[in-house]
Write a structure and sequence with these properties.
Layout (H helix, E strand, L loop, with lengths): L9 E5 L3 E7 L2 E9 L3 H14 L5 E8 L5 E5 L9 H10 L5 E8 L7 H17 L3 E5 L1 E8 L4 H11 L2 E6 L3 E8 L3 H11 L5 E4 L4
Antiparallel strand pairs: 1-7, 2-3, 3-6, 4-5, 4-6, 8-10, 8-11, 9-10
Helix pairs in contact: 2-3, 4-5
């Protein structure tokens, strides 16, 4: 999709879930990445992975939510402090994604790796799964309702296609189009609607999402 906003209007998450496996000195590290929208969704997915790998030695994770990733958490799940959760979070930050959880499941293979190599193993596993993920923009938008006549609908739809990230159309006696407009372009969009229709169409800013 073509970018339609400045950097304040969006951040990146990932598309579909991915998985990556790494083996080091008998230990198996299975990294799973998933897009999430809330702490509860992160915890629910963590429970799902724990159930899937119920016999694993550790299920270490990090998650990050929202623009700027101000809500985050990480866990070593019994590994030496700083060797698992922080390295996973570091890799999430490296890829500049949010609304995401990365869980690295470990099956201990009988050989201790040592603190440095263990941290690298968790880091490499997280890096491997995120390298295979497609980045997807999350737009910060404001819903705007447009009222127009059939006479102006094509011009309005052209502008909507150029600026909006999404829209729904409702055809009645007049036409209503509810658009998701990037926050930095709301004023421009409303002014442009008025201009291209010579004041015949109206707009209503419905509030920030």
């Amino acid at each position: 999709m073509e970018e339609k906003s400045n950097h304040t209007d969006f951040y990146f998450t990932i598309g579909k879930s991915e998985r990556f496996e790494l083996k080091i000195k008998g230990s198996k590290f299975i990294a799973t990445a998933k897009s999430i929208k809330s702490k509860n969704e992160a915890i629910s997915f963590l429970d799902t992975i724990r159930a899937e790998f119920h016999d694993a030695t550790h299920n270490c994770f990090a998650y990050k939510i929202g623009q700027g990733g101000l809500e985050y958490r990480f866990s070593d799940d019994g590994e030496p402090s700083g060797t698992a959760g922080k390295p996973i979070l570091f890799i999430i930050n490296k890829y500049q994604v949010s609304d995401i959880i990365v869980i690295v499941t470990r099956y201990f293979g009988g050989t201790k790796l040592g603190v440095g190599p263990l941290a690298r193993a968790y880091s490499d596993a997280a890096d491997g799964v995120l390298a295979s993920c497609e980045k997807k923009p999350v737009y910060k938008t404001v819903p705007v309702k447009v009222f127009c006549t059939y006479e102006d609908v094509q011009a309005v739809k052209n502008l909507v296609a150029e600026i909006a990230t999404d829209s729904d159309e409702f055809y009645r006696d007049a036409i209503e189009i509810i658009c998701k407009i990037p926050v930095s372009k709301v004023k421009l969009f409303c002014e442009s609607i008025t201009s291209i229709t010579r004041g015949r169409a109206g707009t209503l800013v419905m509030g920030e999402e």
